[in-house]
Specification:
16 strands, alpha/beta, single chain, nine-stranded mixed beta sheet, 2 domains, TIM Barrel, 19% strand
């Protein structure tokens, strides 16, 4: 029997994070507790591997290096899906000493480590630490979306400056304008790729780190209120789905398969904290059914095919996203004990 293909799947292995980033879309900026240990779900994922081909895999949290069985997750997933060529793990890069301990695991499993540094301050130190972990010779390249350069140019452009339609137009600019772009605004091609691009470092053993940084997140999937309570949105589900950043990504959590992260994390968060919603909204939230290893072939295929479709639970998410400075720190926000409100 042919396996069903999933283009991209994320394995969520912990709610715990050592950072408090404003508008974290996994709600890890609160004291959200709970790790998922590999041995607890190895049987379920073994069964999934017999039925699903995963084209691309990413492990994340929370901060996955805080899960004491991360090494088992890396070896376990690599063993079950050996034909998956693109395997990665996302980390905030604050515990890089950990990677020295499991360097051999990275050699064996070929997982790429995606380091998302939260802000520019720690970027250089992070890159220097990675260079110390890797074995020479190390190749370093940048992957950059130069289509965004025009926007950066237009933000600093004086009314007297020539228009630019691509980054290639930079070489045609007068020298004084190029010097200002380089020395003051840091948007010459070389600086632009270093500031906005992903730095890819790969060593002689094929161990690869991809380093980028975030200064902005987008609107969180829950509203955090001034009285330290939480509430869900009441949105048009179609509009919320249109702006969703996870609408094409399946999520494995605790051995089950979900359409997105919010339909699995919000119920668990609701059990731990105060989420204000009506009885009808709570019933809707908890009515979601993930795919399980016991589903029939038709049920599983229909579930996978539904990844691009709107579901009723989309109404609990925001229908408009705005950029939010992430303001990473280690102090968790205050929250109140759980309460229930029948009507809002």
């Amino acid at each position: 029997m042919d396996k069903i293909q999933i283009n991209y799947a994320e394995f969520y292995i912990t709610n715990v994070c050592n950072y408090n980033c404003t508008a974290c879309n996994r709600l890890n900026n609160y004291q959200f507790s709970g790790h998922q240990y590999w041995s607890d779900y190895e049987f379920e994922y073994t069964e999934w591997s017999k039925r699903l081909h995963l084209k691309e895999i990413n492990i994340l949290g929370g901060e996955p290096t805080l899960n004491r069985t991360l090494n088992d997750w890396l070896y376990g997933i690599n063993k079950l899906w050996p034909d998956t060529k693109t395997k990665s793990l996302s980390t905030n890069g604050t515990r890089l000493s950990y990677w020295k301990q499991i360097y051999k695991t990275l050699v064996d499993t070929k997982f790429t480590v995606k380091v998302n540094t939260h802000g520019r301050i720690k970027y250089k130190d992070t890159v220097d630490t990675i260079r110390d972990i890797l074995v020479s010779p190390i190749t370093e390249t940048y992957k950059c979306d130069y289509t965004k350069w025009v926007d950066a140019y237009n933000q600093v452009k004086d009314i007297s400056w020539p228009d630019c339609s691509t980054i290639d137009d930079y070489d045609k600019l007068p020298e004084d304008i190029k010097n200002e772009c380089k020395d003051i605004h840091k948007i010459d091609p070389e600086n632009f790729k270093k500031i906005t691009g992903d730095l890819i470092l790969e060593d002689t053993n094929g161990v690869k780190f991809i380093v980028t940084y975030y200064e902005m997140f987008v609107t969180a999937p829950l509203k955090y209120n001034h009285d330290h309570t939480f509430s869900v949105y009441k949105s048009d589900p179609n509009k919320a789905h249109d702006v969703c950043i996870s609408k094409y990504c399946h999520h494995f959590v605790k051995g089950k398969l979900y359409k997105c992260h919010h339909v699995v994390l919000l119920p668990e968060f609701d059990e731990q904290y105060n989420v204000i919603m009506t009885d009808k909204q709570r019933e809707l939230l908890h009515s979601y059914k993930p795919a399980t290893i016991n589903d029939s072939e038709n049920e599983l295929q229909n579930f996978v095919n539904n990844i691009r479709n709107v579901i009723p639970q989309c109404s609990l998410c925001p229908s408009k996203l705005v950029d939010v400075p992430l303001n990473a720190s280690t102090e968790k926000l205050k929250v109140k004990k759980k309460i229930t409100v029948d009507n809002i």
